[in-house]
Write a structure and sequence with these properties.
This protein is α+β, with helices and mostly antiparallel strands. Helices cover 24% and strands 35% of the residues. The relative contact order is 0.08. The protein has two domains: 6-220, Jelly Rolls; 230-305, Phage tail protein beta-alpha-beta fold (3-Layer(bab) Sandwich), CATH 3.55.50.30. The protein is built from six helices and 16 strands.
Length: 308
C-alpha cells in the first residue's frame, strides 16, 4: 500500500482492514516498525554501517556499500523487535473513544493529551522517540532528551525541538499542525513511505500548517491561546464558518450534524460550543440562522434551508 499502484488495491485493502479489528492493529504496528527502522538512520547505532570504507582484499567496489546496507537493514529490524519489548509506551496502540479524552505520560516523560476518538502508537527508547498518529488529534508536550521527538501522521513528519504542539489527522490527505510554543520542523514522506531528506516547513512562535493533499499552507494563529484550546473544555468561536464549528462538534458525539447543501458551511457564527451536545447545538443553529432541522435515518441531524 506504499507503492505507486496502491490505488488499484484500495477497495480490497479497506475490506481486509474492516474484516477483523486485529488486522488494523497488526498493520499499524508493522507500519510503525517500518517508520522506526528508517529513523535509525539518524541514530548513532547506524553511523558505523553508513560509512563507506575502502574495499578490502581487492573485492568488487559495489560489495562494501551493499553489505553495509544489508547489515543496517538487519540491525534496524532487530532494533524494531527490541522496541516492542516493554510497557504500553513501546509499540502498543493507545486510543480514546467518542466522548473520552485521555491524559498520558510517555516513557520519556513527554505528556500527551488524546482527543476523543483518537489513537497513537508510541515507540520510545533511549535513541528513538517516535509517535505515530493513527487517527484523530493529539497534543504533545515534549520532554527534553538527546533523541529527537518525531510524530508521524499520514505523509507529514513533525520533528519537535522542546515544544508543545497539536497534530490533527482529519483524513488520509488532511493534516493540521498547530504550534503552541517552541519550534517544529515538518517534512513530507516519499511515496514509498520513507522520510524526506530535508524539512519542508519550520514553524516558530504561534503558527499552524495545513496539508491538503499536495498543498501546504502556513498561517499565524489569530485567536487568543485559550479561545480554541480543545483541551480546556468549551470552545469559543468568533465569526467562524459553521463548517469549521461542526468539524469540532462532530468529534464529540455519535450523532453528527450535517448540511443539506454544502453552501451552508460558509455561514459564520460567534459563540461558545459545549462539546457533546449535538441535538442542542443543532437546534440553536437552526433557530439562529433560520434553518430547518431534520433527523436522517441513521440518527444524524441535518440542517437545510427552509422551503420558500
Amino acid at each position: 500500500m506504499r507503492g505507486s499502484n496502491a490505488f488499484r488495491y484500495n477497495s480490497q485493502f479497506k475490506a481486509w482492514l474492516e474484516k477483523d479489528p486485529r488486522h488494523r492493529v497488526t498493520y499499524d504496528r508493522l507500519v510503525a516498525r517500518w517508520d522506526t527502522s528508517y529513523l535509525l538512520k539518524q541514530s548513532d547505532v547506524a553511523k558505523p554501517y553508513l560509512q563507506t570504507p575502502r574495499p578490502r582484499f581487492g573485492g568488487p567496489a559495489w560489495l562494501t556499500p551493499r553489505l553495509a546496507a544489508l547489515v543496517l537493514a538487519v540491525a534496524a529490524l532487530g532494533m524494531g523487535l527490541l522496541v516492542r519489548v516493554g510497557g504500553p509506551s513501546r509499540g502498543s496502540v493507545l486510543a480514546s473513544t467518542i466522548g473520552q479524552r485521555k491524559n498520558l505520560v510517555l516513557a520519556d516523560g513527554s505528556r500527551l493529551v488524546l482527543d476523543v476518538d483518537s489513537a497513537v502508537v508510541p515507540q520510545i527508547t533511549a535513541r528513538v522517540r517516535t509517535v505515530r498518529l493513527l487517527r484523530g488529534r493529539a497534543r504533545f508536550t515534549v520532554a527534553a532528551a538527546a533523541a529527537p521527538f518525531v510524530v508521524l501522521a499520514g505523509d507529514a513528519v513533525v520533528t519537535a525541538h522542546g515544544t508543545e504542539f497539536d497534530v490533527d489527522r482529519g483524513g488520509a490527505d488532511q493534516i493540521d499542525v498547530v504550534l503552541i510554543q517552541g519550534t517544529v520542523d515538518i517534512a513530507r514522506r516519499h511515496r514509498f513511505g520513507f522520510l524526506g531528506p530535508e524539512r519542508l516547513i519550520r514553524l516558530s512562535g504561534r503558527q499552524s500548517a495545513s496539508f491538503r493533499g499536495s498543498r501546504v499552507s502556513v498561517a499565524p494563529l489569530a485567536s487568543p491561546p485559550s479561545a480554541r484550546d480543545w483541551t480546556a473544555g468549551p470552545l469559543s468561536f468568533e465569526q467562524a464558518p459553521i463548517g469549521d464549528v461542526l468539524l469540532e462538534a462532530n468529534r464529540y458525539s455519535q450523532r453528527k450534524i450535517r448540511f443539506g447543501s454544502p453552501d451552508l458551511a460558509r455561514l459564520k457564527i460567534t459563540g461558545v460550543l459545549d462539546t457533546g451536545t449535538s441535538p442542542e447545538l443543532a437546534e440553536a443553529l437552526a433557530r439562529t440562522l433560520g434553518l430547518s432541522l431534520a433527523t436522517a435515518p441513521n440518527g444524524d441531524l441535518v440542517l437545510s434551508r427552509r422551503a420558500a
